[in-house]
Amino acid sequence: MSADTTLRTLKLYVGVWSALGKLEVSLSDGSAPAWTDNSVQNSSGISNALYTIHFRAASAGQTLVVKWTSQTLFNPASGNVTLQAATLALAPLEAWRASYFSSSELADPNISGDAADPDGDGIPNLLEYALNEDPRVANLSIGPHALVMGNLLTTTYTRRKAPMDVTYDLQVSSDVAGGWTAAGIAEQVLADDGGLQTVRATDPALVSANEKRFLKLKVGKQ
Ligand SMILES: [Ca+2]
Ligand SMILES: [Ca+2]
After folding, report:
1. Distance 125 CA to ligand 1 centre (A)
2. Domains of the chain
3. What whole-number percentage of the chain has pLDDT above 70?
4. Ion ligand 1 — residues with CB under 5 Å?
5. pTM of the model
6. What's the 27 CA to ligand 1 centre distance in angstroms?
7. What is the number of other CB atoms lying within 10 angstroms of the CB of residue 201?
8. How far is the CA of 126 from the centre of ligand 1 (A)?
């Protein structure tokens, strides 16, 4: 199976019958250690399993090698292993990227890379993805904004639900230069459409008791 620098997801549907299966996965460029698993077994009957493999090579033109064999046959006459199906898909972030950028743009990290900001709205592409924004349209008014509700500092933001390849970390501090902590932040899901959630995060500190408070949403890659 071909592999390059794009993150892809391979799903392998396998089975064993009176056997212990052995899965071996490796990349032709050796950029990741080979991986072996022998957790699927059934000594007297049939078991099925699904492997989900996320892979990416260090350069273009590489190959992902997948081997599914029997490590042990508990019944030499009838024991066997089966490879029932395999599906290949882009990881969610890469599928999103491919939906907004042409193939020549996808090859240019200054346009389609995580840190690029082709629409010039100050929101890099990774954050556009995390917040479900459009990386080709400058939307300066959208995104998390601070709002005082009652006597508490809050922010409302959109986040993706699993399977997701980004992480969301909210932190608060009285000093923008340091002292950031996630302690005590309450998060309430205001809306959920199955793929996206609207979440309100609330700082536990009373606004009236603090001269300044800051809320920060940090997005990372999983
Ligand atoms: Ca942007
Ligand atoms: Ca945008």
Report:
1. 6
2. 2-90 (2.60.120), 93-130 (no CATH), 146-221 (2.60.40)
3. 99
4. 117, 119, 121, 123
5. 0.70
6. 33
7. 21
8. 9
